[in-house]
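It is worth pausing here to work through a concrete case rather than discussing structure prediction in the abstract. The textbook approach is simple: state the sequence, then state the predicted structure, then interpret. We follow exactly that order.
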Amino acid sequence: MKFRFDQWMVALLGLALVATCSAQPPAKSDGKPELPRVIASATATALVKPDAARITFSISAHEPIEKSPREANEKQVKKLRDAIAALPLGKVDMDIQVSPAAVGLMVTGAQNTGGPTVHSRKAESVFQINIRERDFDKLRDAVARIIESACENGGTSNNDPDSRQTYRIPRIVAGNNDEETEAVPGPSVEWLSSATSGPRRDAIRRAMKEAIADAEAAVGSAKVNVVEVMVTNTETSTDRTSRYSSSEFAPPHAGMVRVSVEVRVTCTY
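Step two, the predicted structure:
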């Protein structure tokens, strides 16, 4: 079958028409085209004074094979409980939870063909102390006193295995046999607050305003209409770890709760 010239022109015009239509925004159910959209996002952060804190640390005992590390660890736990109970903390609400002792072996030469050599046994317990106090200064003072007492009685970070090593290789300092001092991570602190609702909503308002302003900037003089909003938020402590000897180097806003939000807006224009 042969096409005349006018038939070819009709066919080409039909192809052009299809291509043009596919470039238009998709039609809605009512037959009207969808309006173009722009998506923008913004973040905002608020710092809130805490009214609670969670202190976590470990305490461990090492004993020869013929002795019980669990019994030694129980004595350590009792001693530390008594030391914390004797602190002048005022009327702060405090709850102390201690995990049952976990017992394991301390070995060397695990890669030797003859097998590892057992040096001792180890028992470790984890303390978690929850404190509630609405007075910010009293709360921070109580946390500092508990951390100091924990460190003085052998408490170390339960997140750093190296900080709980019993056998260390001395490093020679200035040509003598003195062992160089090492900074050992102490208890971790997580600051908490039960009053974050208001600051979080203020942060959402600020982030919403910024996101809409960005959307307006992106489309020029066109008027934007918000059709969808998504909000995500997080609450984190600004100071999750502490070292016994470095409190003077605390970063700005240490001991505060950071409330961060991200607002994502979808607008038509």
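Step three, interpretation. The chain has two domains: 28-48+194-268, 52-192. The beta strands are 37-48, 52-63, 93-98, 102-108, 117-132, 172-173, 176-179, 188-192, 225-237, 257-268.
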